[in-house]
Amino acid sequence: MSDDRSEPHGDHEDEGDGERHDDTDAGTHTAPGNGADGTREWGIPGRSGGVPDHGADPDHGADPGHSPRTPPPRASVEDGGLPLPAPEPASGVAPRPAEPLVLEHRVLKSLLGAWALAACAPEETAAVEEHLGDCGACADEALRLRDAVGLLQRPESLDLDPGLRTRVLESCLKRRPPRIPVPDWAAAYDAETARLDALLQDFGDTEWHAPVRLRWYEADEATARRTTVAGVIAHLLTVDGLVAVALGLDDPLGDLSAERSTPSARTEAYWRASPCPPTRSVRAPWRAQTHSLVRTVSFTAGRAGRMAVSYGDFELPLHDAMLDRAFECWVHAEDIAEAVDYPYDPPTGRHLHRMVDLAARMLPSVLEARRRSGPDAPGGRRLVVAGEPGRSLRLEIEGSGGGEWLIPLDSPAAKGSAEHEVAHIALDGSEFCRLAAGHVPPQEAAAGQVGDKEAIRDVLLAAASLSRM
Predict the structure, then answer these.
(1) Which among 332, 358, 318, 353 has a CA at the least distance from the CA of 438?
(2) Torsions phi, psi of 240, nearest 5?
(3) Nearest to 10 by CA among 50, 42, 53, 49
(4) Nearest-angstrom CA–CA distance, 403 and 359
(5) C-alpha pair distances (Å), 44 with each of 65, 70, 151, 187, 245
(6) Terminal-to-terminal C-alpha distance of the chain
(7) Per-residue pLDDT reduced to its tens digit, 162-191
(8) Is 393 exposed, middle or buried (0-12, 13-18, 19+ CB in 10 A)?
């Protein structure tokens, strides 16, 4: 190389006496030869860790393996009044303007399916969408295909449809009828206990001890009791035992004695007798008892359907008691699912309708009992002869399991009459069941109400008073 090229390098050495002063204090360098920003400074003489000058080659920094020395300041192009250059890509090749694809109509039409699935290349997507703005027939076809794709990719819950078990059983039983069929009035209990057992099967110790609030209405006031998931199953076990005793099966309480033969008293006795809070071990006896109940009522359905089952304060026929147990199993399954933050669907429409029908049939007796025991019971209310029409409230249940019931207001023995209708309330099926379970305040239950406000209030409060622990 010529001496002329080596002069600049020598000039810097002479001017700085072998040292170069940067704006950044040398104390900020973390290693010899590193700048304040962590980059290595190559070819700077006098700096610790710098590389030699390789003879007299000041342009050594132009080597591909080395960074060039910092150039002198330059005037900004914005200050020069000249047009800004187009940005260059990282590869150093100037971008070429994208040319839109020009495709025939038949080709664009054949791409509609891939476009609906978002499987086209960007150029094809642009060409198709430009074409859709001009061709109405292709636009209609594209809309139809996009809707079809939405159906194919519809998000669905991972939980099984609550009606799946019923449909599978019906299909199997049509091909091979059972020798001993399960009665219709026991099918809801069979289905709801199976659904709850499926929810419990994967629970670990943490889930079994998750806190649960049991809620119901007592003396027109919301009441609650805290327990655990295992405690809820123990509660179902002891109350189902009332039906088991009526059928001559073993009582789950065994030698334990409850103060009264009521659901709450039996549950409290079982909880007190447990040496420690109930655990997952309660699941096996509960499930075995549910199987025994279904099997027993199936064998005795022809002659035991009207058998009375005592709940301590009242009695229910066996077929109504099995519906009552199915209803409570579903309600407490929702309590458990809420405690572990898991979704849980209502029963099938057919089973939900039977549960609503049971509650609607019990309302006239509950209204009469409330009138007799309430402090503000009206003494001048006209009693209706048994079987005669009287003042009635129309209970309309919407949605799954829906229907209409005329509730006699003056006497449980009276007949509901559309001609004597004084009020009309409408509720969703599952919402009405939650009202009867004490999970919904009566004042917030009815979606629509028309007519006698006092009658509406009495019926809603009576529905809430059907609940118990």
Answers:
(1) 332
(2) -60, -25
(3) 53
(4) 13
(5) 16, 11, 68, 91, 99
(6) 101
(7) 677 778 877 887 777 778 888 999 999 999
(8) buried
